[in-house]
Design a protein that fits this description.
2 copies of one chain form a homodimer. By secondary structure, the first copy, chain A, is of the alpha+beta class. Chain A has 11 helices and 17 strands. Chain A has 3 domains: 5-98, 3-Layer(aba) Sandwich (Rossmann fold); 127-187, ATP-grasp fold, A domain (Dna Ligase, domain 1); 193-359, D-amino Acid Aminotransferase, Chain A, domain 1, CATH 3.30.470.20. In chain A, strands 9, 10, 11, 12, 13, 14, 15, 16 and 17 form a 9-stranded antiparallel β-sheet that branches. A 4-stranded parallel β-sheet of chain A has the order 3-2-1-4, sandwiched between helices. A 4-stranded antiparallel β-sheet of chain A has the order 5-8-6-7, with helices on both faces. In chain A, α1 crosses α10, α2 (64-73) packs parallel to α3 (86-95) and α4 (102-109) packs across α5 (111-120). At the A-B interface, α1, β16 and β17 of A face α1, β16 and β17 of B. Chains A, B: It is an enzyme of class 6 (ligase). Chains A, B: GO terms for molecular function: 5-(carboxyamino)imidazole ribonucleotide synthase activity; ATP binding; metal ion binding; phosphoribosylaminoimidazole carboxylase activity. Chains A, B: Keywords: ATP-binding, Ligase, Nucleotide-binding, Purine biosynthesis.
């Protein structure tokens, strides 16, 4: 595919962003750095992104008049989270391009579609099976074994909508916890660590990836990402090629997060996120072009940055009362603090992150 | 001086910024990163800073109702340029603290006050003399010699309001160019290069300085800043101590730019700017805490970052039709582009800058 000059939105154009959380906030700052304006669409009041955006619409995804006015005021539409209702997307897409495209969204909104898509590309996932009934679940447990984890196919993130199953006898309770929603059973895989690749694909079809980061979760929420990850050169190369295969198969435009398990048998794809990703926040202080700018570049049709890192980084999420440590972090050498402007620190709530920068080894 | 807890503005507070240009824009982004909101006050329409600010007032500095409403809506006031009218400052200061303080502003608004202040601290400036009449100017030329440069004492920057004098006979024309404004004659000094120190002083009286950068000007406008500057360890230490002496003498709170000439006889102070400074833009990609965040920290009463750099940087200003080179810069490895969102590229207009990041040597 050749990039046409007409595809590039000129600086001064407006990027519409669905969702006004911290990802929208940091996308908006990156857009400003390249001379673009942003317009946030967010149902919740006083979203973090509104503090650094040119405009903000506070309206629900059912408000078709507000959606139409929003679409008319922007030149392209992107999003910071993947669970935008289909009807809203239909209305928006009729007016303006949505990048990344609808197919990427649809796949990432549904764990079964996602796993079928990934395995269809020849990539490896943990063993999985669709579960709608107790019979499905018992058959799946028989095939996959325990421990296993039952997840709703849609919504749910950071450990929500998930039940661990240690024995067949737990099947009825686990299924009941799904509240009748379609689910997928995933087998546990024996992995040494989790890494993620933050990769981008431009409007011209070019692909650029950042160095993989190594992720540690606490209570189902990302806690730290360390760059570089512990990977052999071959694994590093595999990880990036695998991400590129996903992006190309989707004719994707924008940044994607690809979570991988490192196992003795190779890399397994855990999940993909069609947006900037928490495990890519380190790029803000490790690269000349961070993931937020990379996404903006893709969405407006600019050439991608090459993603090379100039420094090593350990990113730590500040969750809930981690904010009590901010005074100490402010005094740390080489610690770059990023707060999201959220008034109230609740347990499990992402309040900010800190990038600790070290010379590249 | 001890810092009192009551001096610290909590995240979520609003910083009022006088001036909506690129410095206000980058201050606003830095404020957001620490969880603060900003309110811009700017006479011109559609200021660059408004795209990334919580609020923007478009009104003149004569509009006392607008100034009062602005002051009432913010918790502290800072500024991105030093030529705010005195009456406006009087009104604002009655309502909210202004940081850096009025004395720093008054001194930097008047070249004679500035030079008298600096030499009063025991620092060295180029030879200078106040000029109001032709007799003053001729006497000053006789004492200082030529070449020399005649400048209005107030306003004027980036080469405006300045006339070079090569011979006594040019005195009448040079004086006429001042349009009756009070002026100062400055002798030329023989210097090998210019450096600047970006230093900050916190509300608690602590001082932190970034590594000095080496500046190259073109047509009287900063073109590049290179870090590290060519300085001996002794000169580097002198430069930082000298900046600290200035900050302490002014009981200063915030970031200051101090321009120095490097001469065989030592460091000469060229001028000071009581604000974030163009020659400090490199800190955005060379330090965990950049000059904009450092200024915000000082103004809200947070501890200063230590200013250590993790990478070497060459900052290049993009002026006027330098914007034509943006497509090439976007493709450069390790080049971080910062555009100001200005619609029209006019000759001499600062449109953005690029920080080229290199491993620290």
């Amino acid at each position: 595919m050749l990039q046409r000059t007409s595809d590039m939105l000129k600086p001064g154009s407006t990027i519409g962003i669905l969702g006004g959380g911290q990802l929208g906030r940091m996308l908006s700052v990156a857009a400003s750095r390249l001379g673009y304006k942003t317009h946030i669409y967010e149902p919740g009041a006083n979203p973090p992104a509104a503090d650094v955006a040119h405009a903000c619409t506070t309206a629900s995804y059912d408000d078709h008049a507000a959606l139409a006015a929003f679409a008319a005021s922007v030149d392209v539409i992107t999003y910071e989270f993947e669970n935008v209702p289909t009807a809203a997307l239909d209305l928006l897409e009729a007016a303006r391009p949505i990048r990344p495209n609808r197919r990427a969204l649809a796949i990432s909104q549904d764990r079964m579609l996602e796993k079928d898509f990934l395995t269809g590309l020849g990539l490896t996932c943990a063993p999985y099976a669709a579960v709608n009934t107790l019979a499905d679940l018992e058959a799946a447990i028989a095939r996959i074994g325990t421990p296993a984890i039952l997840k709703t196919t849609r919504l749910g993130y950071d450990g929500k909508g998930q039940v661990r199953i240690m024995a067949l006898a737990e099947a009825p309770a686990a299924l009941a916890a799904m509240n009748g929603a379609p689910a997928v059973l995933e087998g546990f895989v024996s992995f040494s660590h989790e890494v993620s690749v933050i990769a981008a694909r431009g409007l011209d079809g070019s692909v650029a990836a950042y160095d993989p980061g190594e992720n540690v979760h606490k209570d189902g929420i990302l806690s730290t990402t360390t760059i570089p990850a512990r990977l052999t050169p071959a694994q590093r190369s595999d990880a990036v090629l695998l991400a590129a295969r996903i992006l190309n198969a989707l004719d994707y435009v924008g940044v994607m997060g690809v979570e991988l398990f490192v196992t003795p048998q190779g890399l397994l794809v855990n999940e993909i996120a069609p947006r900037v990703h928490n495990s890519g926040h380190w790029t803000q202080n490790g690269c000349a072009v961070d993931q937020f700018e990379q996404h903006v570049r893709a969405v407006v049709g600019l050439p991608l940055g090459d993603g090379a890192r100039h420094s090593d980084v350990v990113m730590e999420n500040l969750i809930g009362d981690d904010v009590d440590r901010i005074p100490a972090i402010l005094k740390e050498r080489h610690a770059a603090l990023h707060l999201y402007g959220k008034a109230e620190a609740r347990p499990g709530r992402k309040m900010g992150h800190v990038n600790r920068v070290r010379p590249k080894v």
